[in-house]
Amino acid sequence: MRVNESFGDTVNWDLIPESAISTVTLMSGSNPVFGLNTLGGALSVQTKSGHDNPGTELEAYGGSFGRRSFEGETGGEAGPFDYFLTGSYFDETGWRDMSATRVYQGFGKVGWQNDKTDVDLSYTYADTNLYGDGATPLSMLAYRRAATYTPDFTQNFLNFVNLTGTQFLTDQLLLSANAYYRHLATGSLNGNINDSYLEDNAGPPIDCAAPLSNRADIAFCFPGQNATSSLLQRTAGFGVQLTDSQDIFGWKNQAVLGADYEDSKDSYLQRFQYGDLAPDHSLIYYVSPLDNETVISLSGSNKIFGLYLTDTLSPSKLLHLTASVRYNSNTETLSGDSIDTDVGDVGSGFDTASPLAGDHTFSRINPAFGFTVTPTDALTFYADYNEASRAPTVIELGCSNPAAPCGLPNDFASDPNLQQVVARTVEVGVRGNRPDQRLVWSADVFHTVNSNDIQFVATSTNSGYFDNVGGTRRQGLDLALGGKEGALKWRLTYSYVDATFQSNFIVNAASNSTADADGNILVRPGDRIPLIPQHTGRLVLDYEVNKRLDLGGNLVVASGSYLHGDENNANQAGGTNAAGAVISPLGTGWLPGYAVVNLQGTYHVTKNAEVFARVANVLNREYATAGFLTSNSFNANGTFRPNPNDWTNENAVSPAAPRAIWAGVRINFN
C-alpha cells in the first residue's frame, strides 16, 4: 500500500521503523502498479519477516547532541508459522535551539505459509514528538549557528494494520491481495511572525497602548503568533492482483492485472494565538477571551480507484517487450469554513467566516511501454516511455488562491480548482557487470516534461499558495560505477539534472530585487527550478582491515541551486526593488554547493557482538540544503525589530548539522 498521507501526499519517515525494513528499492519511471504520483519513480519498501530474518538483535548507541537510541528485533518460525517483532526508542536534545526529538516505534508481523500460500498480518505503531527548526536568516546563523527563527513542534501518533496474502492457483497463476487500515493523529504548534502586525487597514486607527477591545486590535498589535492545529487522517483500502506467467506462442510472458481502492477521511482544526515574543522567539501568550479563535474547521475525503495491466513478452533471450496501462479516478471533497484573519481586510471581511467547500474529480489513463535487450547475462540495454499523473491534494486545493495566501501547511482560505499534473518521461540506459561483481556499472539518460505542474508560491516566510504554473522539464543523466577488489568495496555515482520552468507565469516574491511595486516577479521558460542542484555525486568506500575490523566512509557532493523567492534567477544582492525594499548583501537568492565527508567503523568483538562508531560531517563544514529568499524581522543577535520598515530581505536557509560522533554496541543471537 502507499504510505503517502492523504492530506498532503507527504511521507512521514518518522512513522516507518528502520529496524523493520528489509529492502528499499528505487524504481525509476512510472510503474503502473504504484498508481498516483509516481511522476519520476517510486520507493518500494519491503518489511522483514520471521521466515527471512530469524534470530534476535539488540543495538544501543549515543553521543553528540544528547542522542540516545535503543532498538531490538527478534524473529523466527515454527513449521508453517513465522513471526517478527521490533521496537525502537530515539531521544535527542538537538544541536539547534528548541530542536529536541523523541520517537517510539514498534512493528510486528505474523505469517503462515506453505508451497502455495503465504498470509501475513502486520501492525505498525509510532509515537513521535518532533521539534523542527525551519529556515533561519543567514545574518542570525553567522552570529550563532544554532539560532532558530521561530519554533515549530509536531506530534504524530500512528496505528496501522495491513493484511496481505498470496495464493498460487496453478503453477503459473498467482493471486495476491491486501487490505489495510491506517489511523494517524497529528498535533502541531507553529510559531510565526504575525503577518498582520502593524498592517495598514481601512478601519479606524488602532492604539496599541489602549485596552484591546476586539480581535483586530489583538492581531494588529502583537508581533508573535502561534498556529496550533489538530489533524486526524483515517485511511482504509484494499488491492488485488493476478499474475499469469504462462507462455504465449512458445514465448515467455508475464501478465499482471490489478485493481486497488482507497478511502481516506480527514478532519482538521486550527487556532491562532497572539502575543509578544520571548528571547527564544517562543510566544508570550496574550490571555484574552477574544483570542485563541478557531480559524479553520475542515473535513474532507479522498477516494482513489485504480485499475492496471502490465505485460512483459520475451520473444527470445535477447529481447523483452513491456506494455502497461493504468486508469486512475480520484475524487476529493472538502467541507468547512475559514475565518479571515488579515487585518488589512478590516471593514471588508475581517473576522468573518467563508465556506470552504469543494468537490473535485480527477481521472486519467496513463500508458507505458518499453523494451530491454540482453545480449549476455552481464549486459542489458533498455528504453522506455511512460506517463503518470498526480492529483492536487487537499492542502493544495484548499490553498490555491493568490489573493488569500495560507500559512502552510496549516491554513485554508479558498478552494479553486487546480488541474492534475501529468508527467511524460523518456528514459534510455545500459547496465552491466563483470564476473564476481568485481565491476558493476550503469548509465541512463532521461527527459521528463510535466504539464500543469503545481508549485508552492511563497508570499512571505510563513505563507503562500499553490498554483498550476504550466510546464516544467527535468532532464539529465545518471552514472554509477562500483565493484570490489580484495578487501575493498566501492561505489561512485553521479547525477546531472537540468530542471527548468517551461512557461511564463507571475509569482509574488517581494524580497526579490526584480519585484515590481506589487511584489511580483515574472518567471520565463528556461529559468531553473529552485532547490534542485544540477550536479550531485557520492563516493562510498568500505574496507575490511582484518577479520575483526571494518572501516568505511562516504563523500557527498552537491552543486549550488536557487532559493525559493528567486524563481526568475534574476535577484541581485544589495539591490532595491520597485516597491523600495532593500535587498541585503546576504540576499543572494543562491544556495552554495557543498562537499561532506562521513566515516564509520565496526569492530567485531565476537561473532555475536560488535562495537561501532560513526562520525558525520568530519570536516565540520557549514552548509545548507534548502531555504527561501525572504524577509527577516530579527537582528543578527536574535532581538526583534519592532518596526517592520527595518526588516531586511535576505537568504533564510536550513543549516546542516555540524560534526557529530556516535558510538554503540550491537549484539545478535542466531
Model description:
By secondary structure, the protein is mainly beta. The protein has a domain at about 1-365: Maltoporin, Chain A. The protein contains three helices and 35 strands. The strands form six sheets. The protein has a 22-stranded antiparallel beta barrel. A three-stranded antiparallel sheet has the order 8-34-33. Strand 21 and strand 22 (about 465-470) form a beta hairpin. The longest helix is centred in the first third of the chain and has 7 residues, at about 215-220. The two termini are about 30 Å apart.
Short description:
With 670 residues, this protein is mainly beta.
Please write out the topology.
Elements (H helix, E strand, L loop, with lengths): L20 E8 L12 E7 L7 E9 L3 E12 L2 E12 L8 E13 L3 E15 L4 E2 H6 L8 E17 L4 E21 L21 H7 L2 E21 L7 E26 L5 E3 L7 E22 L4 E21 L13 E3 L2 E19 L2 E12 L3 H5 L22 E13 L5 E13 L2 E5 L5 E5 L3 E14 L2 E14 L3 E4 L11 E4 L11 E10 L4 E10 L2 E2 L27 E2 L2 E13 L2 E8 L7 E9 L15 E8 L4 E10 L1
